[in-house]
């Protein structure tokens, strides 16, 4: 029934699995037949505080009983509070524009860069350099910023000008010219294969860009909000970017995006906007999610979970050397490289049959993004099921 409805009335942009999930408790999902699944995906890094989180649900309910939405024509108290929290947790002197998604946040970041080039360099600087295997979104501009030619389908051409990508951080130094206004990178490439960059290389790039007054935009749509163990991967890498974008984990499942910048006066009224961005609903949810995760981090629980998850992941990696070639990632953004893409498909489908949800990244990376609040029991059960799935291949 669901399959039929979906196929008839929803545009076919995904190769979907037709399981019908009805309920979630932390990292465990239940389908309509009450079969349970351990969720090592958190809806692609979104449900950071777990499914069915009572505190988040209560905060949302309390808010929407009063006001769900007013518009950005009026000050929105939970939005201002969220902006303050982001500044405090990042440890930076920043202000935020609130959007609805990662792509939209990256659009905002690119607009900041373009305006910087226009006002400070009379428009002579406008080019944005990104990296190969990056992923920055699905709008026409962010798809063009994405450093994967396979995404630049002629079906959607023409694309905006002023974007190019390099194959490695080292190449960026030579690619910069008088027209470059910004460099935009992820610190751990998510969709591209859960690939972290070397801290020293990133710090060197940041320093180089600062000397030339070229903006550094860090896309933390996937790495942000404690995913790598710190509030921002930026904090882990100890850099000071000009713009940081957030989305996925921030709202705990409610759509929200954030453009966080040290250039607090770059925009003036009319430069940018959003009807829904940062409304009462999404900010009430994000405020509660940040409160929960901050406590989780401060109590040491997040660090313990990261270590425990990493140990179990390593056991699996060591046990199945016939399937895996490398272990990658940071924090609770982890991956195992699989020998080839066909084998990866089998791993994901076997895992599903065994009752554990896992993701793909790039061509041949098994990607794991569990809720940050996942319990030890759920970690154990998830890896037991993954082990069963892998044993079938071995
Ligand atoms: N940037 C990164 C690093 C992402 O991982 C994603 C989504 O996977 C995006 C941007 C796009 O975010 P959204 O799908 O919310 O537009």
Tell me what the structure shows.
With 394 residues, the protein is of the alpha/beta class. It has two domains: 20-52 and 300-372, Alpha-Beta Complex (Aspartate Aminotransferase, domain 1), CATH 3.90.1150.10; 56-298, Type I PLP-dependent aspartate aminotransferase-like (Major domain) (Aspartate Aminotransferase, domain 2), CATH 3.40.640. Helices cover 41% and strands 19% of the residues. It has 13 helices and 17 strands. It has a seven-stranded mixed beta sheet, sandwiched between helices. Strands 1-2-3-15 form a four-stranded mixed beta sheet. A four-stranded antiparallel beta sheet has the order 13-14-17-16. Strand 10 (215-219), helix 9 and strand 11 (243-246) form a beta-alpha-beta unit. Helix 7 (169-175) runs parallel beside helix 8, helix 11 packs parallel to helix 13 and helix 12 crosses helix 13 (376-393). The protein is globular. 49% of the residues are buried. Bound molecules: pyridoxal-5'-phosphate (PLP). Pyridoxal-5'-phosphate binds at residues 101-103, 106, 135-137, 186, 190-191, 219, 221-222, 247.
